C-alpha cells in the first residue's frame, strides 16, 4: 500500500491511499482538528475519476468541521472516500488496508459509516485501528444514528415553525417530507404523534405507501413533493434539492429537513430568503447523527443525557442563527457559516 501526503491549502492533512493489488484507491482528508480529533464517515462510490473523489473528500471533510462545531462537539472535521462500486469492488483485504491507513494518522481522524459502508465493514477496519466508530456492538457502540438525527430534525421543525408561522405547537401543521428512509420514516412518526398532517414521497413506491399508511399521510409522486402546498418542507433524501429551478416552485413557509447539502450553492440560501421562505441550515438541523456517533468516539458512559443536552444545544444554535438572520435580513445559511467560523476562530492556537 502506498500512502502519499497531498499538500492542500486549508486542510491539515490529505492522504492518497493506493494499492493496485487490492484495487484500492482512497483519499482521507483531515480538514481541521482545532476542536478535537477529526470525525466523519467513510464513503464508497464509483466516482467518475480520481479528481471527483478528491473534490468530494475535501468538500465533505470541511462540511464535517462545520457540522461538529455547530453541534458543540469536541471534534474536528474529516472524511474518507473510496473509489469503487461497494457492491463489487469491496473486499475484507481492502477494508483492512484502509484501517491501516487510518492508523497512520494516530487518532487525528476517526471514521464511521457513510454511503456504501456498513457496520460489518467498520468491524473489519476496527481490527486494524481503534479509530473506528459506527460499530454494531461493543461497550460504547452507538448503533444506527437515524433516530437521533430524526429527533434533531423534529426539534428544528418546531423552532422553524415557531419563527416562520408563529406557531407554538406543531399540531395541525402540514409537513411535506421528501425521502422516507432511515431519517424520514422516524421523523414522520414523530410528526404524526405531534398531530401534523403529512404529505410524503419516496422513489421507492412501496416504502412511501407503507410509511403513509403507518402515519396517516398522503403520498405524492417523487417529482411533485417539492412543489406541494404545506407549512414546512422537510428534505430527507438527496442533496442539491434547493436550487434555482426548485425554489420558485416552493409553496411553504419554511424548509427544515435531515438531508445533507440541501442548497445547491450558498446563493440558493439567499434565493430562499428573497422568496420569504425560512431556511433552517441543514448541518445544524441534522447534527443529531454525529452527536450519536460522538458518544462512541468520546466513550460517553451515560448516553441519553449527553444526547439530550447536545440536541438542546443544537436547537439553541438554530434559534440564535435564525434570530441574527432576521435582525440582519440575510440568509440563515450565511449566518450559520459565520457562526461556526467564529467558534473556530476562538479556538485558533495562539
Ligand atoms: P436512506 O438511504 O435510509 O433514505 C433515503 C430515502 O430517500 C430512501 O428511502 C430513498 O428511496 C429515498 N429517495 C432517494 N432519492 C429520492 C428522491 N429524489 N425523492 C424521494 N425520495 C428519494 O438515508 P437516510 O439515512 O435516511 O438519510 C437521508 C438524508 O439525511 C441523506 O441526505 C443523509 O446524508 C442525511 N443524513 C442522515 C443521517 C442519519 O443519521 N442517517 C444523519 C445526517 C444526515
Automatic annotation (TrEMBL):
One of its GO terms (molecular function) is oxidoreductase activity, acting on the CH-NH2 group of donors, NAD or NADP as acceptor. Pfam families: ELFV_dehydrog, ELFV_dehydrog_N. Keywords: NAD, Nucleotide-binding, Oxidoreductase. NAD(+) binds at residues 179-184. GO terms for biological process: amino acid metabolic process. Belongs to the Glu/Leu/Phe/Val dehydrogenases family. This is Leucine dehydrogenase. The lineage of its organism: Bacteria, Pseudomonadati, Pseudomonadota, Alphaproteobacteria, Rhodobacterales.
Amino acid at each position: 500500500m502506498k500512502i502519499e501526503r497531498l499538500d492542500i491549502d486549508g486542510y491539515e492533512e490529505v492522504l492518497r491511499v493506493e494499492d493496485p493489488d487490492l484495487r484500492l484507491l482512497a483519499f482521507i482528508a483531515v480538514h481541521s482538528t482545532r476542536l478535537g480529533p477529526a470525525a466523519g464517515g467513510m464513503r464508497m462510490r464509483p466516482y467518475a475519476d480520481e479528481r471527483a473523489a478528491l473534490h468530494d473528500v475535501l468538500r465533505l471533510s470541511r462540511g464535517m468541521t462545520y457540522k461538529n462545531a455547530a453541534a458543540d462537539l469536541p471534534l474536528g472535521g474529516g472524511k474518507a472516500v473510496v473509489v469503487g462500486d461497494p457492491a463489487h469492488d469491496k473486499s475484507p483485504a481492502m477494508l483492512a488496508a484502509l484501517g491501516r491507513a487510518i492508523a497512520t494518522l494516530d487518532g487525528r481522524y476517526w471514521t464511521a459509516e457513510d454511503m456504501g459502508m456498513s457496520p460489518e465493514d467498520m468491524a473489519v477496519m476496527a481490527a486494524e485501528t481503534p479509530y473506528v466508530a459506527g460499530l454494531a456492538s461493543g461497550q460504547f457502540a452507538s448503533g444506527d444514528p437515524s433516530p437521533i438525527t430524526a429527533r434533531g430534525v423534529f426539534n428544528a421543525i418546531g423552532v422553524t415553525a415557531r419563527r416562520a408561522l408563529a406557531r407554538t405547537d406543531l399540531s395541525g401543521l402540514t409537513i411535506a417530507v421528501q425521502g422516507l428512509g432511515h431519517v424520514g420514516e422516524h421523523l414522520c412518526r414523530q410528526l404524526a404523534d405531534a398531530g401534523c398532517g403529512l404529505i410524503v414521497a419516496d422513489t421507492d413506491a412501496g416504502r412511501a405507501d407503507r410509511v403513509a399508511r403507518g402515519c396517516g399521510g398522503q403520498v405524492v409522486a417523487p417529482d411533485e413533493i417539492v412543489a406541494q402546498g404545506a407549512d414546512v418542507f422537510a428534505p430527507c433524501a438527496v442533496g442539491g434539492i434547493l436550487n434555482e429551478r426548485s425554489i420558485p416552485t416552493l409553496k411553504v413557509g419554511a424548509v427544515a429537513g435531515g438531508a445533507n447539502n440541501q442548497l445547491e450553492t450558498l446563493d440558493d440560501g439567499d434565493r430562499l430568503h428573497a422568496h420569504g421562505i425560512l431556511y433552517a441550515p441543514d448541518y445544524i438541523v441534522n447534527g443529531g447523527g454525529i452527536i450519536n456517533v460522538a458518544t462512541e468516539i468520546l466513550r460517553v458512559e451515560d448516553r441519553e443525557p449527553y444526547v439530550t443536552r447536545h440536541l438542546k444545544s443544537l436547537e439553541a444554535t438554530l434559534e440564535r442563527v435564525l434570530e441574527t438572520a432576521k435582525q440582519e435580513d440575510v440568509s440563515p445559511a450565511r449566518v450559520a457559516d459565520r457562526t461556526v467560523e467564529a467558534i473556530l476562530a476562538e479556538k485558533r492556537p495562539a
